[in-house]
Amino acid sequence: MSTGTKLRNIGPKSAAWLRQTGIRSQEDLESVGALAAFVRVKRAGFKPSLNLLYALEGAIQGCHWQEIPDERRSELVLAAGDEVAKLPLPKNKRMPAAAPVKTVHLDGEDEGDMPGPGYGFDDPSSSRDD
Question: pTM for the complete prediction?
């Protein structure tokens, strides 16, 4: 990631993301770990896919990302889900405040009237399987 250093499995875009999060070398990646590096990228506001997580693990293990065993992939995905869930939502992704509730009355109904039997749902006590 520093000039002339290329991590296995890591393309230019991912390398730029990692540099911006302080990971600039194989040693940096190994000291941080694949999961923490992935979470740093997410926290920085980038939108990496799980392939980056596998690629980071592969870079640490010295293998192609597709060679990461399924069991290890599952561990990484579960751990990443837990860690990413702890991250605060970006301001533009927070839920908006709920709008005021508006009550609509149908013609002929008073505010206190309840709909009569047969309105919307069947009465389960009236159906019998004889």
Answer: 0.65
Q: Where are the domains of the chain?
A: 12-89
Options 3.90.420.10, 3.30.70.2570, 1.10.150.20, 3.30.1490.270; CATH for 12-89 is 1.10.150.20
Q: Which residue has the tokens 């990228």?
A: 41
Per-residue pLDDT of the chain (130 residues; tens, 9 = 90+): 544 468 999 999 999 999 999 999 999 999 999 999 999 999 999 999 999 999 999 999 999 999 999 999 999 999 999 998 888 876 665 555 566 666 766 666 555 555 565 555 555 565 555 5
The Cα 93–Cα 81 span in angstroms is 18
